[in-house]
Amino acid sequence: MNAPATARAQRPHIVVVGCGFGGLEATRLLSRSDVDVTIIERTNHHLFQPLLYQVATAGLAAPSIAAPVRVLFRGRENVTTLLAEVTAIDPHGRAVTLADGNRIGYDHLIVAAGATHSYFGHDEWAAHAPGLKTLADAFEIRRRMLMSFESAERESDPQRRRAMLTFAVIGAGPTGVEMAGTMAEIARHTLAGEFRRIDPASAQVLLIEGNTRVLQAMPESLSAKALDQLRKLGVQVRLNARVTAIDAAGLSIGMPDGGSERIDSHCMVWAAGVAASPLGRLLAEATGAESDRAGRVLVQPDLSLPGHPEISVVGDLAAAQSHVPGKAPAPVPGVSPAAKQMGRTAARNILARLRGQATEAFRYADYGNLATIGRNSAVVDLATPFGPFRMSGRLAWQFWLFAHIYFLIGFRNRLVVLMDWASAYWSFQRYARVVPDVADPATRADSA
Amino acid sequence: MNAPATARAQRPHIVVVGCGFGGLEATRLLSRSDVDVTIIERTNHHLFQPLLYQVATAGLAAPSIAAPVRVLFRGRENVTTLLAEVTAIDPHGRAVTLADGNRIGYDHLIVAAGATHSYFGHDEWAAHAPGLKTLADAFEIRRRMLMSFESAERESDPQRRRAMLTFAVIGAGPTGVEMAGTMAEIARHTLAGEFRRIDPASAQVLLIEGNTRVLQAMPESLSAKALDQLRKLGVQVRLNARVTAIDAAGLSIGMPDGGSERIDSHCMVWAAGVAASPLGRLLAEATGAESDRAGRVLVQPDLSLPGHPEISVVGDLAAAQSHVPGKAPAPVPGVSPAAKQMGRTAARNILARLRGQATEAFRYADYGNLATIGRNSAVVDLATPFGPFRMSGRLAWQFWLFAHIYFLIGFRNRLVVLMDWASAYWSFQRYARVVPDVADPATRADSA
Question: What global pTM score does this model have?
Answer without folding.
Answer: 0.92
